[in-house]
């Protein structure tokens, strides 16, 4: 389990976390690809989600490299991996909050113009601040081997850095704490505004025996607004718990169960976003199913055609000869 200040990462933990990284990689890629393929999906909220997915994609790749390597020293690849994951992870916090701010301004303040004008600020903050912090940490030799004390094989803040806790806060934890506070407040305000508007609107229309189809979409949106902060906290809380246990000097931070949950939580954001905003979004889900069905039908047709061609070939006859004979017979029939 532990060796002094070093937390052992077992093979089973590596396998589980690598699988989580793979799911997040696929999920983030799917969000990005659907945005590129279907132009009518290129709305501002979906574009912000793509920027978040880029951060999650980088996080999944860098964490997977760290978990696969399980660094033991301050090697160059350890520092590079630690820098990339620090930048991507911090950027993910900022973009998650940015999306909540955008939705708050757009829905509660009812100002799309103001909400859209915030996009440049979101870019400057969500890419700029993590980049400045990461460059400063690397320049001051703060990023490196951390003995998996608050990680799962990957590199973060060096274990022997005197002001280690300060740099843990700057390179992730303080932004994580702020997200814990900000996201629930913003999404509660958004849900409250939607419920008030829905109640006010219902006064001017008769109550129907059967709910209209739009109500199901409203209910799904309402559930998503509840799930976004809940899922974020559920995924990230294990990392926070280990950080607090480190500050308290408790060996419980090295528990294999806690280490595994930490690894899954830190690497699952991309997969969770894909489930909520692609698989649980009916129009997108329908398009994906249609696309997959078309691809499968084409593959089956090609395989069947190839199989029929092989069955028609005589010994010593190749496919080109058969095609020539078919064309000759068709010409004769036409005459």
From TrEMBL:
GO terms for molecular function: cAMP binding; G protein-coupled receptor activity. Residues 27-190 form the G-protein coupled receptors family 1 profile domain. Its main location: membrane. The keyword Cell division does not apply. It comes from the Eukaryota. The keyword Membrane applies. Keywords: Membrane, Transmembrane, Transmembrane helix. Residues 314-335 are annotated as: Disordered. It is a multi-pass membrane protein. SUPFAM superfamilies: Family A G protein-coupled receptor-like. GO terms for biological process: adenylate cyclase-activating G protein-coupled receptor signaling pathway; cell surface receptor signaling pathway. Residues 13-170 form the G-protein coupled receptors family 2 profile domain. InterPro entries: GCR1-cAMP_receptor, GPCR_2-like_7TM, GPCR_2_secretin-like, GPCR_cAMP, GPCR_Rhodpsn_7TM. Pfam families: 7tm_2. GO terms for cellular component: plasma membrane. The chain crosses the membrane at residues 15-36, 48-71, 91-108, 120-145, 165-190, 225-248. Residues 321-335 have a biased composition (Basic and acidic residues). Gene3D superfamilies: Rhodopsin 7-helix transmembrane proteins (1.20.1070.10). It is found in: Membrane. This is G protein-coupled receptor 157.
């Amino acid at each position: 389990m532990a060796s002094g200040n070093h937390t052992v990462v077992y093979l089973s933990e590596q396998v589980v976390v690598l699988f989580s990284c793979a799911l997040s990689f696929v999920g983030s890629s799917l969000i990005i690809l659907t945005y590129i393929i279907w132009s009518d999906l290129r709305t501002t909220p979906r574009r912000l989600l793509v920027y978040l997915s880029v951060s999650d994609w980088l996080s999944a790749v860098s964490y997977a490299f760290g978990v696969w390597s399980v660094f033991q020293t301050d090697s160059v690849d350890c520092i590079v991996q630690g820098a990339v994951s620090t930048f991507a992870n911090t950027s993910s916090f900022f973009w998650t909050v940015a999306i909540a701010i955008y939705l708050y301004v757009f829905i509660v303040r009812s100002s799309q113009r103001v909400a859209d004008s915030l996009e440049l600020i979101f870019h400057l903050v969500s890419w700029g601040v993590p980049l400045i912090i990461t460059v400063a940490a690397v320049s001051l030799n703060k990023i490196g081997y951390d003995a998996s004390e608050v990680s799962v094989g990957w590199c973060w803040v060096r274990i022997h850095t005197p002001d280690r806790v300060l740099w843990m806060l700057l390179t992730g934890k303080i932004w994580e704490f702020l997200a814990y506070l900000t996201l629930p407040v913003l999404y509660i305000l958004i849900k409250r505004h939607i419920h008030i508007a829905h109640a006010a609107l219902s006064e001017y229309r008769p109550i129907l025996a059967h709910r209209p189809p739009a109500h199901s979409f409203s209910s799904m949106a309402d559930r998503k607004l509840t799930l976004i902060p809940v899922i974020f906290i559920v995924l990230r809380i294990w990392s926070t718990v280990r950080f607090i246990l480190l500050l308290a000097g408790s060996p419980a931070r090295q528990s294999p169960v806690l280490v595994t949950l930490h690894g899954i939580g830190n690497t699952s954001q991309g997969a969770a976003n894909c489930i909520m905003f692609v698989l649980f979004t009916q129009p997108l889900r329908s398009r994906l199913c249609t696309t997959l069905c078309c691809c499968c039908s084409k593959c089956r047709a090609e395989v069947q055609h190839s199989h029929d061609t092989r069955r028609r070939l005589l010994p010593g006859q190749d496919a080109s000869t058969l095609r020539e004979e078919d064309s000759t017979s068709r010409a004769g029939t036409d005459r």
